[in-house]
Amino acid sequence: GDIMADDTSVGDVDPAEDNEEPTTDLETDDIPEIIEVEPIDINTLYQDYQVNEVGNIMVVMYHGIEDNPPYHRTKENFLKDLTYMYEHNYRLISMTDYLHMSFDVPLGYTPIVITFDDGLKSTFSLINDGNQLVPDPNSAVGIIEAFILEHPDFGKGGCFFINDNYNNTFFGEGTLKERFTWLIDHGYDIGNHSASHSNFSTLGATGLQKEIGQVDQLLDELLPGYDMIALSYPYGARPETTLRPLVLKGTYENIDYEYLGAFGVGPTSNPNPPSYITFSPELLPRIRGSEGEVGDLWFYFDYYENHPEKRYISDGDASTIVIPDTSVDKISDAFKEAFEVITYLEPVVGSAQ
Asked: Going by C-beta distance under 8 Å and a sequence separation of 6 or more, which residues neighbour residue 325?
């Protein structure tokens, strides 16, 4: 405990010793040198890392883990994708954090979102290891979980777009509620892929809301209080123009649904972040998780290596949006109000920093 300054219970003290010089075992050379550190110039720091929080964020589309390209990926090739992401400074974020722009990615890194359609067993299923239900190690989730164990700084996330297919969704051990619960409890998102994988371009207002609302009804029965915020179009087909608002907001059997984004099946436009002034939530692009074709994931890996200025580069602070001063007009008013926007002088190409 604390000893008071006038405490005399610590033992007898010889007053003559009070005048002695203090002694130390440290040699002069052992005393650390005090080094003055130059203050960090934020402008230079942002320039060095090319911070650009209005750059492109890829949302990648997978289906199953099997040898059936281009919509499916083998286990080896899926691991190849994850390894490339990790080694080239991409970091996984969740769909929820992406659509809310609330992710925490280190300075100099690029967020990336991965998604899976159709609720396939090879994407996620549970097995009983004798003590508990765990992901099948050969499923996409099992592969991701093992990869994160080896690379804990990779981030976490994945959105699974499902249909109203109670018996076959993520077929495996456990109930459907247990499967959904496992995903949500471990940082993954569930999204809407329509009740029967119907082509939205052929539906009227009633049919459209039914296709969307039935999946919301399923989640509401199994996981009351869980809100899906993302939808993916079956076949990438959007409804007729006047009906498109019903994709994001509608009602089915007294259940109201609301979505922050609906995704297609290809790079239909630049993968701008939600903060971008022309961000259009009714048709958001996804990059097909395959290799060897124009517009697929490995095409864009190469593209961003050659055009790093197009990538979203984080400033390491989730509460701010940092951009070159030449990009200030690219941020929407809503995000200017919700976040602190910081600009810095963009270096002239070819100039010495």
From this structure: 343, 344, 345, 346
- Annotate 136-169 with b (16+ C-beta within 10 A) or e (fewer): beebbbbbbeebbeebeebbbbbbbbbbbbeeeb
Q: How far is CA 192 from the centre of its chain?
A: 18
pTM summary value: 0.87
Structure token digits, residue 165: 């297919």
Q: How many CB atoms lie within 10 A of CB 28?
A: 5
Q: Is 318 in contact with 102 (CB distance < 8 Å)?
A: yes
CB 251 within 8 A of CB 214: no
- Map tokens 């602190």 to a residue: 340
DSSP 8-state secondary structure symbol assigned to residue 293? S
Write down how long the chain is: 353
Coil vs helix vs strand at 35: coil
- The residue assigned the tokens 């650009």 is 52
Residue 62: strand, helix, or coil: strand
Taking only the tens place, the pLDDT of each residue in 318-350 is: 999 999 999 999 999 999 999 999 999 987 654
Residue 145 token pair:
């979980």
Q: Which two tokens stand for residue 195?
A: 């009740």
Residue type, 259: Y
Question: Rounded to an integer, what distance in angstroms lies between the CA atom of residue 275 and that of residue 335?
Answer: 6
Which residues have a Cβ under 8 Å from the Cβ of 174 and sit 6 or more positions away?
A: 126, 133, 182
If you compute the radius of gyration of the chain from its CA atoms, what whole number of angstroms results?
27
pLDDT by residue (tens digit) across 263-285? 999 998 899 999 999 999 999 99
How would DSSP label each residue in 231-242?
A: EE-GGGPPPPGG
